[in-house]
Design brief:
- Chain A: Pfam families: BPD_transp_1 (PF00528).
- Chain A: It is found in: Cell membrane.
- Chain A: It comes from Primorskyibacter flagellatus.
- The complex is a heterodimer.
- Chain A is mostly helical.
- Chain A has two domains: 72 residues, no CATH class; 187 residues, MetI-like (MetI-like fold), CATH 1.10.3720.10.
- Helices cover 73% and strands 2% of the residues of chain A.
- A two-stranded antiparallel sheet of chain A has the order 1-2.
- In chain A, strand 1 and strand 2 form a beta hairpin.
- Chain A is globular, with a radius of gyration of 24 Å.
- The two termini of chain A are 24 Å apart.
- By secondary structure, chain B is mostly helical.
- Chain B folds into two domains: 32 residues; 55 residues.
- Helices cover 70% and strands 4% of the residues of chain B.
- Chain B has three helices and two strands.
- A two-stranded antiparallel sheet of chain B has the order 1-2.
- In chain B, a hairpin with a 5-residue loop joins strand 1 and strand 2.
- The longest helix of chain B is centred in the N-terminal third of the chain and has 23 residues.
- The chains are: A mainly alpha, B mainly alpha.
Chain lengths: 290, 90
Protein backbone atom coordinates (compact mmCIF):
# COMPACT_ATOMS: atom_id res chain seq x y z
CA UNK A 1 0.00 0.00 0.00
CA UNK A 2 1.38 3.41 -0.95
CA UNK A 3 1.98 5.80 1.92
CA UNK A 4 0.15 9.13 1.63
CA UNK A 5 2.32 12.21 2.11
CA UNK A 6 0.43 15.30 3.18
CA UNK A 7 2.54 18.11 4.56
CA UNK A 8 -0.55 20.15 5.44
CA UNK A 9 -0.65 18.07 8.63
CA UNK A 10 2.19 20.31 9.85
CA UNK A 11 -0.39 23.08 10.30
CA UNK A 12 -1.80 21.03 13.19
CA UNK A 13 1.41 21.79 15.08
CA UNK A 14 0.87 25.55 14.74
CA UNK A 15 -1.12 26.02 18.00
CA UNK A 16 1.72 24.37 19.96
CA UNK A 17 4.29 26.54 18.19
CA UNK A 18 2.35 29.69 19.08
CA UNK A 19 2.02 28.54 22.69
CA UNK A 20 5.74 27.73 22.97
CA UNK A 21 6.62 31.06 21.34
CA UNK A 22 4.67 33.02 23.92
CA UNK A 23 5.56 30.89 26.95
CA UNK A 24 9.23 30.18 26.22
CA UNK A 25 10.83 31.76 23.15
CA UNK A 26 9.74 35.38 23.66
CA UNK A 27 10.57 35.38 27.41
CA UNK A 28 13.96 33.81 26.61
CA UNK A 29 14.68 36.49 23.99
CA UNK A 30 13.74 39.16 26.53
CA UNK A 31 16.12 37.64 29.09
CA UNK A 32 18.93 37.72 26.50
CA UNK A 33 18.11 41.39 25.82
CA UNK A 34 18.21 42.17 29.56
CA UNK A 35 21.52 40.34 29.99
CA UNK A 36 23.43 42.90 27.91
CA UNK A 37 21.82 45.99 29.44
CA UNK A 38 21.38 47.77 32.74
CA UNK A 39 18.16 49.28 34.01
CA UNK A 40 17.07 51.39 36.95
CA UNK A 41 13.39 50.83 36.23
CA UNK A 42 10.89 52.94 34.26
CA UNK A 43 11.62 50.72 31.21
CA UNK A 44 14.88 52.59 30.51
CA UNK A 45 17.83 50.46 29.48
CA UNK A 46 21.55 51.20 29.05
CA UNK A 47 23.96 49.10 27.03
CA UNK A 48 26.33 47.06 29.22
CA UNK A 49 27.72 44.56 26.71
CA UNK A 50 29.14 41.40 28.28
CA UNK A 51 29.75 43.05 31.65
CA UNK A 52 27.11 41.01 33.52
CA UNK A 53 28.40 37.75 32.13
CA UNK A 54 31.94 38.65 33.24
CA UNK A 55 30.64 39.62 36.67
CA UNK A 56 28.68 36.39 37.05
CA UNK A 57 31.52 34.18 35.83
CA UNK A 58 33.81 35.63 38.50
CA UNK A 59 31.12 35.66 41.19
CA UNK A 60 31.72 33.34 44.16
CA UNK A 61 28.06 33.66 44.96
CA UNK A 62 27.01 32.00 41.68
CA UNK A 63 29.66 29.27 41.81
CA UNK A 64 28.77 28.47 45.43
CA UNK A 65 25.07 28.23 44.54
CA UNK A 66 25.96 25.99 41.59
CA UNK A 67 28.10 23.79 43.85
CA UNK A 68 25.29 23.46 46.42
CA UNK A 69 22.84 22.71 43.62
CA UNK A 70 25.05 20.00 42.09
CA UNK A 71 25.59 18.35 45.50
CA UNK A 72 21.86 18.46 46.24
CA UNK A 73 20.92 16.91 42.87
CA UNK A 74 23.56 14.17 43.15
CA UNK A 75 22.56 13.31 46.74
CA UNK A 76 18.85 13.04 45.99
CA UNK A 77 19.53 10.97 42.85
CA UNK A 78 21.81 8.66 44.84
CA UNK A 79 19.04 8.12 47.39
CA UNK A 80 15.84 8.24 45.34
CA UNK A 81 16.82 5.98 42.45
CA UNK A 82 17.99 2.92 44.49
CA UNK A 83 15.21 3.46 47.04
CA UNK A 84 12.58 3.74 44.29
CA UNK A 85 13.83 0.52 42.68
CA UNK A 86 13.81 -1.24 46.07
CA UNK A 87 10.23 -0.11 46.75
CA UNK A 88 9.11 -1.16 43.25
CA UNK A 89 10.69 -4.60 43.64
CA UNK A 90 8.80 -5.13 46.90
CA UNK A 91 5.40 -3.89 45.72
CA UNK A 92 2.73 -6.56 45.08
CA UNK A 93 2.51 -7.44 41.38
CA UNK A 94 -1.28 -7.95 41.27
CA UNK A 95 -4.41 -8.02 43.38
CA UNK A 96 -6.03 -5.50 45.71
CA UNK A 97 -2.79 -4.66 47.50
CA UNK A 98 -1.15 -3.69 44.23
CA UNK A 99 -3.87 -1.07 43.70
CA UNK A 100 -3.64 0.11 47.33
CA UNK A 101 0.14 0.48 47.01
CA UNK A 102 -0.18 2.38 43.73
CA UNK A 103 -2.64 4.85 45.27
CA UNK A 104 -0.46 5.32 48.36
CA UNK A 105 2.65 5.83 46.23
CA UNK A 106 0.88 8.41 44.07
CA UNK A 107 -0.30 10.49 47.05
CA UNK A 108 2.90 12.53 47.70
CA UNK A 109 3.06 13.39 43.99
CA UNK A 110 -0.36 15.01 44.14
CA UNK A 111 0.55 17.49 46.87
CA UNK A 112 1.45 20.99 45.61
CA UNK A 113 5.07 22.03 46.16
CA UNK A 114 4.31 24.90 48.54
CA UNK A 115 2.09 22.62 50.64
CA UNK A 116 4.91 20.06 50.88
CA UNK A 117 7.20 22.87 52.04
CA UNK A 118 4.68 24.04 54.63
CA UNK A 119 4.10 20.48 55.91
CA UNK A 120 7.84 19.94 56.45
CA UNK A 121 8.38 23.44 57.79
CA UNK A 122 5.93 22.67 60.61
CA UNK A 123 6.86 18.97 60.90
CA UNK A 124 10.52 19.83 61.54
CA UNK A 125 10.02 22.63 64.06
CA UNK A 126 11.52 21.85 67.46
CA UNK A 127 8.75 23.66 69.36
CA UNK A 128 5.58 22.25 67.75
CA UNK A 129 6.66 19.81 64.98
CA UNK A 130 6.39 16.06 65.47
CA UNK A 131 9.74 15.38 63.79
CA UNK A 132 11.58 18.24 65.48
CA UNK A 133 10.29 17.38 68.96
CA UNK A 134 10.91 13.65 68.51
CA UNK A 135 14.49 14.10 67.30
CA UNK A 136 15.18 16.59 70.11
CA UNK A 137 13.65 14.20 72.66
CA UNK A 138 16.12 11.55 71.46
CA UNK A 139 18.89 13.90 72.59
CA UNK A 140 19.98 14.94 69.09
CA UNK A 141 20.77 18.57 68.44
CA UNK A 142 18.34 19.28 65.60
CA UNK A 143 17.25 22.73 64.54
CA UNK A 144 16.96 23.39 60.82
CA UNK A 145 16.66 27.14 61.29
CA UNK A 146 20.10 27.52 62.86
CA UNK A 147 22.12 24.40 61.95
CA UNK A 148 23.18 24.07 58.27
CA UNK A 149 23.55 20.28 58.53
CA UNK A 150 20.03 19.91 59.96
CA UNK A 151 18.70 22.23 57.23
CA UNK A 152 20.30 20.09 54.50
CA UNK A 153 19.03 16.85 56.06
CA UNK A 154 15.50 18.31 56.26
CA UNK A 155 15.50 19.51 52.65
CA UNK A 156 16.90 16.20 51.37
CA UNK A 157 14.50 14.03 53.40
CA UNK A 158 11.62 16.23 52.26
CA UNK A 159 12.58 15.75 48.61
CA UNK A 160 13.03 12.00 49.10
CA UNK A 161 9.58 11.83 50.72
CA UNK A 162 8.02 13.85 47.92
CA UNK A 163 9.62 12.28 44.86
CA UNK A 164 10.82 8.72 45.54
CA UNK A 165 7.35 7.48 44.61
CA UNK A 166 7.82 8.82 41.08
CA UNK A 167 10.93 6.67 40.63
CA UNK A 168 9.14 3.73 42.29
CA UNK A 169 6.10 4.03 40.02
CA UNK A 170 8.25 4.26 36.88
CA UNK A 171 10.38 1.30 37.99
CA UNK A 172 7.19 -0.63 38.83
CA UNK A 173 5.85 0.04 35.33
CA UNK A 174 9.14 -1.26 33.92
CA UNK A 175 8.95 -4.40 36.07
CA UNK A 176 5.34 -5.09 35.09
CA UNK A 177 6.30 -5.10 31.42
CA UNK A 178 8.74 -8.03 31.86
CA UNK A 179 7.16 -11.22 30.41
CA UNK A 180 6.77 -14.13 32.84
CA UNK A 181 8.81 -16.32 30.47
CA UNK A 182 12.00 -14.52 31.57
CA UNK A 183 11.39 -15.46 35.21
CA UNK A 184 10.53 -19.05 34.21
CA UNK A 185 13.82 -19.32 32.31
CA UNK A 186 15.64 -17.93 35.34
CA UNK A 187 13.99 -20.52 37.61
CA UNK A 188 14.98 -23.34 35.24
CA UNK A 189 18.57 -22.05 35.37
CA UNK A 190 18.28 -21.80 39.17
CA UNK A 191 19.34 -18.17 39.00
CA UNK A 192 19.80 -16.39 42.33
CA UNK A 193 17.61 -13.39 43.28
CA UNK A 194 20.54 -11.10 42.59
CA UNK A 195 21.12 -12.67 39.15
CA UNK A 196 17.44 -12.18 38.26
CA UNK A 197 17.70 -8.53 39.26
CA UNK A 198 21.05 -7.95 37.56
CA UNK A 199 20.43 -9.75 34.27
CA UNK A 200 16.65 -9.51 33.79
CA UNK A 201 14.99 -6.78 35.82
CA UNK A 202 17.64 -4.06 35.70
CA UNK A 203 18.23 -4.24 31.91
CA UNK A 204 14.47 -4.25 31.30
CA UNK A 205 14.03 -1.22 33.57
CA UNK A 206 16.89 0.71 31.94
CA UNK A 207 14.66 2.88 29.72
CA UNK A 208 12.23 3.94 32.45
CA UNK A 209 15.06 4.45 34.93
CA UNK A 210 16.78 6.83 32.54
CA UNK A 211 13.54 8.78 32.25
CA UNK A 212 13.28 8.76 36.06
CA UNK A 213 16.85 10.03 36.43
CA UNK A 214 16.26 12.73 33.81
CA UNK A 215 13.01 13.90 35.43
CA UNK A 216 14.45 13.88 38.94
CA UNK A 217 17.62 15.61 37.86
CA UNK A 218 15.75 18.35 36.01
CA UNK A 219 13.30 18.90 38.85
CA UNK A 220 15.96 18.87 41.56
CA UNK A 221 18.24 21.16 39.57
CA UNK A 222 15.43 23.70 39.31
CA UNK A 223 14.08 23.22 42.83
CA UNK A 224 12.74 26.41 44.37
CA UNK A 225 9.48 26.28 46.28
CA UNK A 226 10.06 23.56 48.87
CA UNK A 227 13.45 24.72 50.25
CA UNK A 228 12.31 28.34 50.01
CA UNK A 229 9.28 27.61 52.20
CA UNK A 230 11.19 25.43 54.69
CA UNK A 231 14.51 27.24 55.12
CA UNK A 232 14.23 30.39 52.97
CA UNK A 233 17.72 29.49 51.68
CA UNK A 234 19.23 29.57 55.17
CA UNK A 235 20.70 29.40 57.67
CA UNK A 236 22.92 32.00 56.03
CA UNK A 237 23.13 30.87 52.40
CA UNK A 238 23.64 27.18 53.12
CA UNK A 239 20.49 25.99 51.33
CA UNK A 240 20.38 28.78 48.76
CA UNK A 241 20.16 26.82 45.53
CA UNK A 242 20.40 28.31 42.05
CA UNK A 243 16.72 29.21 41.64
CA UNK A 244 16.50 30.78 45.09
CA UNK A 245 19.63 32.84 44.44
CA UNK A 246 18.33 33.87 41.04
CA UNK A 247 15.00 35.06 42.43
CA UNK A 248 16.77 36.96 45.23
CA UNK A 249 18.95 38.69 42.64
CA UNK A 250 16.19 39.49 40.14
CA UNK A 251 13.30 40.37 42.41
CA UNK A 252 14.89 41.03 45.81
CA UNK A 253 17.71 43.22 44.55
CA UNK A 254 16.21 44.19 41.16
CA UNK A 255 19.56 43.39 39.49
CA UNK A 256 17.90 42.41 36.23
CA UNK A 257 21.07 42.45 34.10
CA UNK A 258 23.18 40.11 36.30
CA UNK A 259 20.12 37.93 36.98
CA UNK A 260 19.48 37.62 33.24
CA UNK A 261 23.12 36.64 32.60
CA UNK A 262 22.89 34.16 35.50
CA UNK A 263 19.68 32.62 34.14
CA UNK A 264 21.12 32.22 30.64
CA UNK A 265 24.09 30.28 32.04
CA UNK A 266 21.71 28.24 34.22
CA UNK A 267 19.59 27.51 31.14
CA UNK A 268 22.64 26.42 29.12
CA UNK A 269 23.74 23.97 31.82
CA UNK A 270 20.25 22.43 31.96
CA UNK A 271 20.07 22.31 28.16
CA UNK A 272 23.45 20.53 27.96
CA UNK A 273 22.58 17.92 30.58
CA UNK A 274 19.12 17.32 29.10
CA UNK A 275 20.65 16.84 25.67
CA UNK A 276 23.14 14.30 27.06
CA UNK A 277 20.30 12.36 28.74
CA UNK A 278 18.13 12.56 25.63
CA UNK A 279 20.96 11.34 23.41
CA UNK A 280 21.74 8.44 25.73
CA UNK A 281 18.05 7.47 25.88
CA UNK A 282 17.45 7.60 22.13
CA UNK A 283 20.63 5.64 21.45
CA UNK A 284 19.61 2.98 23.96
CA UNK A 285 16.21 2.73 22.25
CA UNK A 286 17.89 2.34 18.86
CA UNK A 287 20.25 -0.29 20.25
CA UNK A 288 17.33 -2.23 21.74
CA UNK A 289 15.37 -1.80 18.51
CA UNK A 290 12.46 0.04 20.19
CA UNK B 1 7.96 45.56 21.64
CA UNK B 2 9.61 48.19 23.87
CA UNK B 3 9.13 45.97 26.91
CA UNK B 4 11.43 43.37 25.33
CA UNK B 5 14.27 45.94 25.47
CA UNK B 6 15.65 45.08 22.02
CA UNK B 7 19.15 46.12 21.01
CA UNK B 8 20.79 45.85 17.59
CA UNK B 9 23.40 43.24 18.65
CA UNK B 10 20.77 40.95 20.22
CA UNK B 11 18.46 41.43 17.21
CA UNK B 12 21.32 40.42 14.88
CA UNK B 13 22.13 37.45 17.18
CA UNK B 14 18.57 36.11 17.02
CA UNK B 15 18.33 36.97 13.32
CA UNK B 16 21.37 34.80 12.60
CA UNK B 17 19.95 31.91 14.64
CA UNK B 18 16.55 32.23 12.91
CA UNK B 19 18.26 32.33 9.49
CA UNK B 20 20.27 29.21 10.36
CA UNK B 21 17.13 27.35 11.47
CA UNK B 22 15.25 28.33 8.31
CA UNK B 23 18.21 27.37 6.09
CA UNK B 24 18.62 23.98 7.74
CA UNK B 25 14.86 23.32 7.53
CA UNK B 26 14.87 24.09 3.81
CA UNK B 27 17.98 21.92 3.36
CA UNK B 28 16.30 19.05 5.22
CA UNK B 29 13.23 19.30 2.94
CA UNK B 30 15.09 19.78 -0.34
CA UNK B 31 17.97 17.40 0.33
CA UNK B 32 16.85 14.66 2.76
CA UNK B 33 19.79 12.88 4.34
CA UNK B 34 20.55 9.64 6.15
CA UNK B 35 21.85 10.15 9.71
CA UNK B 36 25.53 9.31 10.09
CA UNK B 37 27.67 8.15 13.02
CA UNK B 38 30.77 10.17 13.79
CA UNK B 39 33.40 10.45 16.51
CA UNK B 40 30.80 10.72 19.30
CA UNK B 41 29.42 7.31 18.32
CA UNK B 42 25.89 8.68 17.99
CA UNK B 43 23.73 9.09 14.92
CA UNK B 44 23.42 12.74 13.90
CA UNK B 45 21.62 14.68 11.20
CA UNK B 46 22.57 18.18 9.98
CA UNK B 47 20.09 19.62 12.49
CA UNK B 48 21.69 17.69 15.37
CA UNK B 49 25.12 18.93 14.33
CA UNK B 50 23.80 22.51 14.23
CA UNK B 51 22.43 22.10 17.77
CA UNK B 52 25.75 20.65 19.02
CA UNK B 53 27.58 23.55 17.34
CA UNK B 54 25.35 26.27 18.83
CA UNK B 55 25.39 24.77 22.33
CA UNK B 56 29.14 24.20 22.22
CA UNK B 57 29.71 27.72 20.86
CA UNK B 58 27.81 29.17 23.82
CA UNK B 59 30.07 27.34 26.28
CA UNK B 60 33.23 28.22 24.32
CA UNK B 61 32.30 31.91 24.40
CA UNK B 62 31.49 31.78 28.11
CA UNK B 63 34.77 30.00 28.84
CA UNK B 64 36.66 32.55 26.73
CA UNK B 65 35.00 35.39 28.61
CA UNK B 66 35.67 33.88 32.02
CA UNK B 67 39.19 32.54 31.48
CA UNK B 68 40.93 35.05 29.21
CA UNK B 69 41.27 38.79 28.80
CA UNK B 70 41.57 38.59 25.01
CA UNK B 71 38.91 40.07 22.72
CA UNK B 72 35.67 38.11 22.48
CA UNK B 73 36.01 37.92 18.68
CA UNK B 74 38.71 35.28 19.20
CA UNK B 75 36.19 33.23 21.18
CA UNK B 76 33.75 33.57 18.30
CA UNK B 77 36.49 32.53 15.86
CA UNK B 78 37.25 29.47 17.98
CA UNK B 79 33.53 28.63 17.97
CA UNK B 80 33.50 28.74 14.16
CA UNK B 81 36.47 26.35 14.05
CA UNK B 82 34.65 24.11 16.53
CA UNK B 83 31.50 24.27 14.38
CA UNK B 84 33.44 23.28 11.27
CA UNK B 85 34.96 20.34 13.20
CA UNK B 86 31.51 19.25 14.40
CA UNK B 87 30.09 19.28 10.88
CA UNK B 88 33.11 17.38 9.57
CA UNK B 89 33.67 14.75 12.26
CA UNK B 90 30.53 14.34 14.44
Amino acid sequence: MEKTQNNRAWFLVLPVLVLVAFSAVIPLMTVVNYSVQDTFGNNQFFWAGLEWFEEMLSSDRMWNALGRQAIFSLVILAIEVPLGIYVALNMPKKGVWASVCLVLMALPLLIPFNVVGTIWQIFGRVDIGLLGRTVSALGLDYNYTSDPFAAWITVIVMDVWHWTSLVALLAYAGLQSIPEAYYQAARIDQASRWAVFRYIELPKMQGVLLIAVLLRFMDSFMIYTEPFVVTGGGPGNTTTFLSIDLVKMAIGQFDLGPAAAFSIMYFLVILLISWVFYTVMTNLDKRDGV
Amino acid sequence: MAWMAWTWPTAVFFGVIAALLITFTILAIRFPETPRTGVLGIETTRGDRLFITLLGAAFINLAWLGLTDAAQWWGLGLSLVYGAAVFRFV
